[in-house]
C-alpha cells in the first residue's frame, strides 16, 4: 500500500504542485489571468531548460513568475513583458523563438545535420555497392575457375 502511495505521489505530484503555484496568482480581470498563464507557458525555465516557467519549481522560475506577475499587476501588456524577458535573457527564453539570423541554428540546425547525415550515408552505401561490382582481374578469374573446377571434381567423385 505504501508503495502504491509513493508511486501515485511521484506520478501525480508535479501537476498538483504546478496547479498550486498558479493558484497563488490572482488577477482582477480574467483576461489578465489568461495572459499570465500564456506568458509563463511560453517562457522556458532557464535552469531546467526543458520546462516552462509554469511547470518548473526552480527558484529562478519562481522569481521570474513573480516578476511577470508584478509586471502584469502594474499594467504592462503581454507583448511588453515578453519583449522585456527576451531583451534580458535572449531568444532562448522562448519555446518558439522568432525566425531571424541569430536563431537560424535553432531552426535549421537539425535539418542540416539530418541532410549531411543522409549525404554521408548515401556516399557510404554507394561506395560499398561500387566495391561489390568491381570486376576480377584475369589472374583472379583463373584462380576462381580453378577453385570451382576443384569443387566440381570433388562433387563428381562423391557421387
Automatic annotation (TrEMBL):
Signal peptide as annotated in the record: 1-19
UniProt domain CcmH/CycL/Ccl2/NrfF N-terminal: residue ranges: 9-148
Pfam families: CcmH
Top-rank taxon: Bacteria
Coiled-coil residue windows: 130-157
Keywords: Coiled coil, Cytochrome c-type biogenesis, Heme, Iron, Membrane, Metal-binding, Signal, Transmembrane, Transmembrane helix
InterPro entries given in the database record: C-type_cytochrome_biogenesis, CcmH/CycL/Ccl2/NrfF_N, CcmH/CycL/NrfF/Ccl2_sf
GO cellular-component term (any): plasma membrane
Keyword Protease: no
One Gene Ontology term of the molecular function aspect: metal ion binding
Recorded family membership: Belongs to the CcmH/CycL/Ccl2/NrfF family.
Function, as annotated: Possible subunit of a heme lyase.
Protein name per its UniProtKB record: Cytochrome c-type biogenesis protein
